[in-house]
Design brief:
The structure holds two protein chains of two kinds. By secondary structure, chain A is mostly helical. Chain A contains six helices and no strands. In chain A, helix 5 runs antiparallel to helix 6. The longest helix of chain B has 66 residues. Chain B is mostly helical. Chain B is built from two helices and no strands. Classes of the chains: A mainly alpha, B mainly alpha. The interface between A and B is medium-sized, with 28 and 24 residues.
Chain lengths: 100, 143
């Protein structure tokens, strides 16, 4: 399971949220600016694709670099309903193994 | 008693000669019972009580403030996390929506092919803003 992209459940996304906001921040902002100008989904497909590519590749990289820490953190978040305060230990391990 | 009197024998002749057995006070009387009030005026004064209580209450308020700071940070972390993943989720939904919409427009074109002057996918609103079609057919099938 070392090289797979993890399935993007809410727990996985919330676990990687800090990484996403730093590494894919540019794409996110571009997409949101496009949306603000025109909420029509057909007009922002290009930016949306960039966002999806960036996040999916980021998740794959994270899973390759620190699979155990990421899986532990994701499992904890899944168990506790995405409550950061209840998973501080696993979060610290994850950020030590895969620095932001 | 009557027998003693009549026959001159030893013993009591009348009740008056019975030894007195009474429940009474001990010799010298009972010790005195204190019933007077005795509320001492010693202990901390008003200023000391006020100072100590204000210190305790102040410490309590400080703890409340620290707790509020912590809770605000936790809530901000949650909001930041949701902000970070919102574009991905919206982008995925947009892609799915556009695919569905194209399918709907194809159907509409087929169905209304015989109607002259029908613009497929025409916007029924004239405000210029984009509104999602209200046909109820473009929702995600979660069944």
């Amino acid at each position: 399971m070392g090289g797979d992209t993890p399935v993007t459940t809410s727990a996985v996304l919330m676990s990687a949220s800090k990484h996403i906001s730093t590494k894919c921040g540019e794409e996110n902002r571009a997409f949101l600016n496009c949306k603000r100008e025109d909420p029509n989904p057909e007009k922002c497909l290009a930016q949306g694709q960039k966002v999806t590519k960036c996040v999916v590749s980021l998740l794959r990289d994270l899973h390759e670099t620190c699979p155990k820490a990421m899986d532990a953190f994701t499992k904890c978040m899944d168990y506790y309903g995405n409550e950061f305060e209840l998973c501080r230990k696993e979060q610290a391990n994850f950020q030590k193994a895969c620095p932001i | 008693m009557t027998e003693v009197t009549l026959r001159n024998q030893k013993g009591m002749t009348s009740v008056k000669e019975m030894p007195i057995l009474q429940d009474g006070p001990p010799p010298g009387g009972f010790p005195a019972v204190r019933y007077a009030r005795r509320i001492p005026n010693s202990g901390p004064g008003g200023a000391a009580v006020f100072l100590v209580s204000s210190l305790v209450i102040g410490f309590g308020f400080y703890q409340v403030g620290q707790g509020n700071i912590h809770r605000r940070a936790v809530r901000a972390e949650k909001i930041a996390a949701r902000q970070a993943i919102l574009p991905l989720i919206q982008a995925e939904e947009d892609a799915r929506f556009v695919k569905e919409l194209k399918k709907q427009l194809e159907e509409e074109k087929e169905v209304m092919a015989h109607v002259p002057g029908w613009k497929v996918g025409e916007n029924v609103y004239s405000s210029g803003r984009w509104m999602p079609p209200s046909t109820g057919k473009l929702t995600v099938d979660l069944s």
